[in-house]
Write a structure and sequence with these properties.
The complex is a heterodimer. By secondary structure, chain A is α+β, with helices and mostly antiparallel strands. Chain A has 3 domains: 9-198, Histidine kinase-like ATPase, C-terminal domain (Heat Shock Protein 90); 214-234 and 250-435, Ribosomal Protein S5, domain 2 (2-Layer Sandwich); 444-660, 2-Layer Sandwich (formyl-coa transferase, domain 3), CATH 3.30.1540. Chain A is 36% helix and 21% strand. The longest helix of chain B has 13 residues, at 218-230. The chains are: A alpha+beta, B alpha+beta. Chains A and B meet through α16, β20 and α18 of A and β26 of B. Bound molecules: adenosine-5'-triphosphate, magnesium ion and zinc ion (ZN). Zinc ion binds next to α16 of chain A.
Chain lengths: 660, 392
């Protein structure tokens, strides 16, 4: 007798469930998406026991006919696509017909649904994949699904669930982000005892943002919007001889981006606060995450990440959503195009806004700040795997998950019982401890030391820009390192070194772009001894160094002779800069592209050539520096991501002195 | 040789309940304080260094200031009622004496390092520190002294001091090299981008055999410059020991710690075949460069020199400021050449040369060092200034 057997549907569904559903939040995601696909405008969710005991979702969507409702629990039963051609242009969130049978196979499920067409509604009960009851039901139009005892028949999976609180936080984050993506719809989320989220319909994303997070976060975020015609990179067309008589050119359509991005001073230690929706589908896409990092490159330390809420809209045929079992990943037909569009749109948003950092916020907004306030701004939990969690989806049943969970427990300091009524805001507080433990300092400037800063209280700030930089009047220096300046907006503190560094950085890149880097030839070549591996690295980047003003050649097996140097670099600074670039290159060469090398070299030259801390500046020089800084694209932060200018708002000063 | 008041007080064990009481003319005191105060550190972490040491003996008041790297010791006539010594906060004393009217000033050491200063109807007390804390200042050696003509030394310093490197890490370039020979002397300074070399012949120097090379720190050169400027002594007495350089100008002695390290082999970089040259009036060149440099890149100050058929064109451009060009007519019939320089470096040289007379600019090509020198240096000076070009 052969050994191969066809699996029963029930087992097949359970296996599929492993891919589609790995925790309560993924059930919520599937059910939410179904409700949205059904055109619901009012969605109410209840969860108990972090979703393990109960997930109930009620929508006012189109509902299902009785026959359809029964069919919906068959595998690959869907109303959303018919042929494989439809897969090329999916406009709904669901399309596989897998979610309901999968969920039903690992829980006790009740469905109540009614359409406008039928006079009676339908009630269905399913236990671990077996339909146990079908009835009529007197319900209003729409669908209500209750999922009880998730994983009751798959003990292996139940083991991987984390604490109720953690699961609840994932559910909350997920609902929050779908609510953000659909501001025109009503969302509610309740736990057994509390209302976690109630968001009636509003007109704009920004209103929804405010509804959910309140003013503190909104002040830290900048709106962005951009649009680009896809005309020049339109859809591929069949050759003329293959076109039908009534062939119509496909509409190229538009690529649109809207959303919010954080000011550079709001920094996170992982990518979990970057939320990307493609055609309103929450996805985690490498191309886009990379574009986001690129947009913040040299504005934020490479070890930090921004908070981004981004909605991308594009014609459905531009994006393939059928590449990941949980639909968490997508593939863009023109990924390079999308990447550059996202990068440039975000970058332009940052350049345009030139956000000014408040001194008090800067104290708390850094990822290394210990204040809970920084965490409280955003629930720092992702419904989708972050970079370190990517293995979780791919191999949900394999070892790494266990290991990761264990590590998670070890790293986390003892957690206080969270006040669930304040979710999602208090959730992030839990993460703060973790962030603190895993934090490394931002990429160091080797030329100055950390200035210790004492913590203070924080207050909400009126949105501010750095456009006022040019009008600043310098008063003097603090310890010959920070420029104190004033204008109508308040009192400003500017770090002279990083300010000059930013000015030089952009200047060097500009000149490099047009191959106009000025260089000073040296009277006597400067000899620098290198290690053998540094010689190799030097050879690899010599050409780029040359274009940045270094003329150097090998002088014996382990020595190079520098014959010309970029402006402003002499002696030790020149040597240190060179060694720094070589050391970084040694670490990075594998994954770096040319542009990254270029900006890294520019940042290094800028850092070493810039005015140092502990350098007295006269008022003319300070005025000059502030004026030059005002002209830069990113006066917010130095190329290594440190803040440049911080502001004490006039209002705060008045408040502190109890004048208002 | 008699050196009143010098070197005696310090060796004598300090008497219990130290005393000092003198009277000195305000004019004499202010003159000597002015000469000395520049050595005093403004921001020092060693409090005693912000004080003057005053020593009174026989009929002189000796004033000493040091920052540990250098020291100046000077003296003036005084009526010494009680010999002794004390320290006084330098800045405060100097500022106060400046504000007093002409007349005699009495200085008296009191209990606990308090010092009373009286003049006419003004009466002030300042608190100094224990004299014993004041660091030992090296003594001028009595042998192997070389007498250097003061005017020549002053001239050489002013022609080279600006080329000394500001980059503190390049300590061997943080001074100028003094080269003494039996019948000539020279001074050379470089910052790695340009080099200034001046030689003075027709001198007769004592106590020099062969060639004596001494690296003098910039700070000491600046002190020397001002000491030479205020006095009218014909000679500077120069001596050195293992660690210290000594310069005596009249009654004032400047000491400075020697710079260690090897000054670069400057002779190797002196251009030999800069065959393309023009001669222009110093004043014209200065005017043109200053005008054009307004529009040069703020940081590099880069300007272009273009030599063509009987013309020297000087130009600049920057994305921020705009562009500018000046033309100077002058005979030139070698192959055309374009070479870029830091305008600040050229201006430094032209300032040192002065606006009188003509300068000669000698080039080889756009990559090699250019050389500038006065067309008619006069007074047995040979002055050459070498600048490395920039690529613009
Ligand atoms: N809330 C709902 N309201 C109306 N119809 C629903 C609802 N939920 C599910 N359906 C119907 O049931 C079908 C099956 O749902 P299911 O989630 O299993 O698959 P899908 O959404 O089509 O694809 P996917 O597996 O990608 O989610 C859907 O195609 C839809 O017709
Ligand atoms: Mg679905
Ligand atoms: Zn730096």
């Amino acid at each position: 007798m052969g050994r191969i057997r066809i699996l029963s549907d029930q087992v097949a569904n359970q296996i599929a469930a492993g891919e589609v559903v790995d925790r309560p939040a993924s059930v919520v995601k599937e059910l939410l998406e179904n409700a949205l696909d059904a055109g619901a405008t009012h969605i109410r969710l209840e969860v108990e026991g972090g979703g393990r005991k109960l997930i109930r979702i009620a929508d006012n969507g189109c509902g299902m006919l009785r026959d359809d409702a029964l069919l919906a629990f068959e595998r690959h039963a869907t109303s959303k696509i018919r042929s494989s051609d439809d897969l090329l242009s999916i406009a709904t969130l669901g399309f596989r017909g897998e979610a309901l049978p999968s969920i039903a196979s690992i829980s006790r499920l009740q469905l109540d649904t009614k359409t406008d067409e039928e006079s009676a509604g339908t009630h269905i009960e399913i236990m671990g994949g077996k339909i146990v009851r079908v009835d009529e039901a007197a319900v209003a139009r729409g669908t209500t699904i209750a999922v009880r005892d998730l994983f009751f028949n798959t003990p292996a999976r139940r083991k991987f669930l984390k604490s109720e609180t953690t699961e609840l936080s994932h559910v909350t984050a997920l609902v929050t982000h779908y609510a953000l993506a659909h501001p025109d719809k009503h969302f509610e989320l309740h736990s057994a005892t509390h209302a976690l989220l109630v968001a009636p319909p509003v007109r704009k994303s920004s209103e929804r943002l405010y509804q959910i997070f309140g003013g503190d976060l909104v002040d830290q975020l900048l709106p962005v919007a951009a649009e680009m015609s896809l005309e020049h990179a339109g859809l591929p067309e069949p050759p003329p001889w293959k076109r039908d008589a009534d062939y119509k050119r496909p509409e190229p359509g538009f690529l649109r981006l809207s959303g919010f991005l954080s000011k550079p001073e709001l920094q996170k230690l992982n990518r979990n606060s970057i939320y990307v929706f493609v055609n309103r589908r929450l996805v985690r896409d490498r191309v886009i995450l990379h574009a986001v990092s690129e947009a913040y490159r040299n504005i934020m330390p490479p070890t930090s990440f921004p908070v981004v809420l981004m909605f991308l809209e594009m014609p459905p045929d531009e994006v393939d959503v059928n590449v990941h079992p949980a639909k968490a990943e997508v593939r863009f037909r023109q990924s390079g195009f999308v990447h550059d569009f996202v990068r440039d749109s975000l970058r332009n948003g940052l350049i345009k806004a030139r956000p000014a950092a408040s001194f008090l916020q800067a104290l708390t907004a850094s990822p290394h700040a210990t204040s809970v306030i920084s965490g409280a701004l955003l629930p720092d939990v992702s419904p989708l795997p972050g970079e370190e969690g990517e293995t979780r989806f791919a191999a949900a049943d394999s070892e790494p998950v266990l290991v990761e969970d264990a590590a998670d427990f070890e790293l986390r300091p003892p957690q206080p019982e969270p006040e669930t009524d304040k979710l999602p805001f208090s959730l992030a507080g839990l993460e703060v401890g973790l962030e603190k433990l895993t934090s490394g300092l931002p990429e160091a400037h080797d030329c100055d030391s950390q200035t210790p800063i004492e913590a203070g209280e924080t207050e909400a700030q009126a949105p501010a820009t750095l456009n006022g930089l040019a009008s600043l009047k310098p008063l003097g220096q603090l310890r010959e390192s920070f420029i104190l300046a004033v204008n109508e907006e308040g009192l400003w503190i500017i770090d002279q070194h990083v300010a000059h560094e930013r000015v030089l950085f952009e200047k060097i890149l500009r000149e490099r772009q047009v191959e106009r880097v000025e260089r000073q030839r040296l009277l006597m070549p400067m000899l620098v001894d290198l290690l053998p591996q540094q010689m190799v690295v030097f050879a690899a980047i010599a050409r780029e160094l040359e274009r940045n003003g270094f003329e150097a050649e090998a002088f014996g097996p382990r020595t190079i002779a520098i014959k010309a140097a970029p402006i402003g670099l002499e002696g030790n600074r020149l040597e240190r800069m060179l060694v720094e670039v070589l050391e970084q290159s040694e670490r990075e060469t594998q994954r770096e592209n040319l542009e990254t090398v270029r900006t890294r070299i520019a940042a290094s030259i800028a850092c070493h050539a810039a005015i140092k801390v502990n350098t007295p500046l006269d008022s003319k020089r300070m005025e000059w520096l502030l004026a030059e800084l005002a002209k830069t694209d990113h006066p917010t932060s130095c190329p290594h991501g440190r803040p440049i200018a911080l502001r004490y708002a006039w209002k705060d000063i008045q408040r502190a002195f109890q004048r208002i | 040789m008699s050196m009143p008041g010098v070197g005696t007080e310090q060796e004598r064990p300090l008497a219990q309940g130290a005393t000092m009481e003198i009277s000195v003319s305000r004019q004499d005191l202010l003159r000597e304080l002015t000469a000395t105060q520049s050595v005093v550190e403004r921001k020092t972490t060693i409090p005693i260094l912000s004080n003057f040491l005053l020593e009174a003996d026989e009929d002189r008041l000796t004033i000493i200031a040091t920052d540990l790297d250098q020291s100046i010791k000077t003296s003036c006539a005084a009526k010494v009622k009680k010999p002794g010594s004390c320290t006084i906060p330098a800045r405060k004393l100097y500022d106060y004496i400046k504000l007093l009217p002409e007349g005699d000033i009495s200085i008296k050491l009191m209990e606990n390092h308090w010092v009373q200063i009286r003049s006419g109807r003004s009466n002030t007390k300042m608190v100094g520190m224990a004299r014993a804390n004041f660091p030992q200042v090296p003594e001028f050696p009595e042998t192997s002294i070389t007498r250097i003509p003061a005017a020549s030394l002053k001239g050489m310093i002013s022609k080279t001091i600006f080329a000394i490197s500001n980059e503190e890490s390049r300590y061997t370039l943080n001074g100028a090299l003094l080269i003494l020979k039996v019948e000539s002397m020279a001074m050379v300074a470089t910052d790695g981008h340009r080099l200034s070399h001046v030689e003075k012949t027709g001198e007769t120097l004592t106590n020099v055999s062969g060639e004596k090379k001494t690296l003098i720190p910039r700070k000491a050169l600046a002190e020397l410059q001002s000491l030479l400027g205020s006095g009218d002594d014909a000679f500077v007495e120069f001596a050195d020991d293992e660690h210290t350089l000594f310069f005596r100008i009249g009654r004032r002695v400047l000491t400075t710690r020697k710079l260690s390290g090897q000054f670069p082999n400057y002779e190797a970089v002196m251009p030999r075949d800069n065959t393309k040259f023009v001669v222009v009036r110093s004043q014209d060149l200065m005017g043109s460069i200053q005008r054009v440099a307004q529009f040069a890149d703020e940081r590099s100050g880069a300007i272009k020199m273009r030599l063509e058929q009987n013309e020297l064109k000087i130009s600049s451009s920057s994305t921020d400021a705009g562009e500018s060009e000046d033309t100077i007519e002058t005979p030139y019939n070698f192959d055309p050449i374009v070479v870029g320089f830091n305008s600040a470096y050229m201006i430094d040289f032209l300032k040192a040369v002065g606006s009188e007379g003509e300068v000669r600019l000698e080039f080889k090509d756009a990559q090699s060092a250019g050389q500038m020198r006065p067309e008619d240096p006069g007074e047995d000076y040979k002055y050459r200034y070498i600048i490395m070009p920039m690529r613009i």
